[in-house]
Amino acid sequence: MEHNNSAGLRMGRGRPTPAAEEPSPVLGSTGAYKAEVKPKIGSAPVAAAKAGGTIAGDGAGPRILIVGGGIGGLTTALCLKQRVPAAHITIFEKADSISASGGLGINLLAPCIEVLFSLGLEVPLRETAIETSALILAGSHDEHIKTDPRGLAAGHTMPQLSIDRGQLARILSDAVVDRLGAEAVKADHRFQSFEERGDHVVARFAREGGGTTEFVGDALIGADGLHSAVRKLFYPHEQKRYTGWVSWRGLTPMASAPYDGRTMTIIGKVREDDGRVAASYGQAFVCYPIDEPTRKRGGALMNWVAEMAVEEVPSEEEGWLLPASKEEVAAAFAGFCFGPIVVASLISEATTCTKFVLYDRDPVQQWSFGRVTLLGDAAHPMLPFGSLGAGTAILDADALARALESETTSGTQGVPQALELYERARIESANDTVLKCRKGALHKPLTEACVRSSRRLSVIMFDGLNLDSDLDSDSDSDSN
Ligand SMILES: Cc1cc2nc3c(=O)[nH]c(=O)nc-3n(C[C@H](O)[C@H](O)[C@H](O)COP(=O)(O)OP(=O)(O)OC[C@H]3O[C@@H](n4cnc5c(N)ncnc54)[C@H](O)[C@@H]3O)c2cc1C
User: Fold this and answer.
1) Could you tell me the CATH number of the domain that includes residue 33?
2) Which domain holds residue 423?
3) pLDDT tens-digit map of 357-394
4) Most C-beta atoms within 10 A of its C-beta, which of 44, 126, 255, 331?
């Protein structure tokens, strides 16, 4: 059965109908690898396959083809290597190296840190990441609303970490290359389509220089992110909606760290009416330091996200890294401040500034289709309100490896059952998280003022941040 963008697809459960054609024993050449690539920050050494072929399989373990070398795909490879050592794992990445957009921060909550530490990544993560100690919620006129402890300080057994996305990708890809070998990562392989043939799946990839190449596996994992090509095959008519929100992100070096150098601050727009304080939907600013070596020197590398309601649909397509003018963003946030955080200055002094137009998609009810499944943003794209996207992908990776461990103990049998087990374990909670992130957006800018008789008595509730998901056991979640 051929699966491409125009093909009608089987959406039901159970094993796929075997194609009349027998599986081809070898597709293309046997894959002569040519090692290229110099290791550098944010990229892993990779082997470029000039031609596709079978993934060497000895029948002792399943051949797993992972599409996408992002946070979800890399973590899946590491979890699988740990739980199903006999598996033959290959990651196919469309870019010419593994390097998640560096220069932008990401915040990871305690439950997914547990997975990453269990993979033996505690030392490199602690060397690089900031252990978030507290979350300050503030109003835009320098009003302190509340300070909550985070991570270990909040009683979790694991810390909450803030890190540069590029550094996280480097740590994961270094571990993949170290444990699986450089040949397990195939850069410049853009997934196009797949075909299920009996007890195999054949995946087709395009190469930058032209031409395509095919690989045979026992399972195909679509971990290819927000614009997943694998998901598109199953949901070709999916619609996305503009949320009415645009966010800008940037990174600003600060000579001296605010507070303890580990604190996250969220400032919601508050307006004053007749001396009373009221909520004003429309703007919020989130910032947190992300670099431990800078903190140790007394400074801070401050990651920030400025969010604003924009009624008119922006002309730009959806994307994390649209070019943006920091002067315009600084002007829109003029006057926002809380203690040492003077928002317009922080934005003006940024070394990077990018724009993200926020679109929303409905959760889907099926991820696993025979020998193919979806994982991470490909399975559950969600709005970036709550620090939950990457963490959810990491929990998926752990669950998928556990399912394959329990269902495929004898050789390559049981792969479709494992993918169904994985889906059952994760889909409800992940879809719930998607909906809670959507609710978070509707309640933007994070603050809602319950006005009492005077400014001093005003209580501001962070309603949109109460994302009670499997990742977030605190009463207030954080924003990306
Ligand atoms: C700037 C920014 C800040 C964020 N902040 C947070 C945060 O604080 N906390 C949090 O939990 N989440 C955050 N997120 C969301 C989080 O990064 C995503 O949810 C997470 O990366 C999802 O992992 P993934 O592996 O599914 O997708 P990705 O990490 O996006 O990886 C997908 C990979 O697939 C590759 N790919 C795409 N198409 C193909 C194809 N056809 N063939 C082969 N390869 C392909 C891509 O190149 C990419 O490497 C943030 C995201 C961004 C961009």
Assistant:
1) 3.50.50.60
2) 2-102+167-239+362-436
3) 889 999 999 999 999 999 999 999 998 877 789 999 99
4) 44
Determine, yes or no, domain membership for 107: no
State the chain's mean pLDDT as an integer.
Answer: 80
How many CB atoms are located within 10 Å of the residue 317 CB? 9
Please report the sign of the dihedral spanned by the C-alpha atoms of residue 396, residue 400, residue 401, residue 402. Answer: positive
Query: Separation of 251 CA from ligand 1 center, angstroms?
Result: 18
pLDDT tens per residue, range 413-460 = 899 999 999 999 999 999 999 988 887 654 443 444 323 222 333 333
Residue 225 Cα to ligand 1 middle (Å): 5
Identify whether residues 73 and 140 lie together within a single domain: no
Tell me: do 175 and 205 sit in the same domain.
Answer: yes
Q: Are residues 278 and 398 in the same domain?
A: no
The residue to mutate among 377, 392, 396, 400, having the most atoms of ligand 1 within 8 angstroms of its beta carbon, is: 377
Span from the CA of 475 to the centroid of ligand 1 (angstroms): 26
* Position 125 in a domain: no
3-state helix, strand, coil in the chain (%, to 5): 30, 30, 40
Q: Give the per-residue pLDDT at 26.
A: 25
Widest CA span in the chain: 78
Ligand 1, CB cutoff 6 Å, lining residues: 67-73, 92-95, 100-101, 104, 106-107, 165, 190-191, 223-225, 229, 249, 320, 376-378, 384, 387-391, 393, 480
User: Which sign, positive or negative, has the C-alpha torsion 398, 386, 228, 166?
Assistant: negative
Do 323 and 349 belong to one domain?
Answer: yes
Find the 187 Cα to ligand 1 centroid distance in Å.
16
pTM: 0.84
Note whether 367 and 274 are same-domain residues. no
Tens-digit pLDDT profile for residues 125-165: 999 999 999 999 888 888 887 888 999 999 999 999 999 99
The reply to whether 124 falls in a domain is no
Strand ranges for 161-211 from DSSP E: 161-164, 185-186, 190-197, 200-206
Substitution candidate for ligand 1 out of 93, 107, 224, 380 with most atoms within 8 A of CB = 224
**Quick check: is 210 in a domain?**
yes
- Domain identity same for 327 and 422: no
Q: Where are the alpha helices (DSSP H) in 84-144?
A: 110-118, 122-128
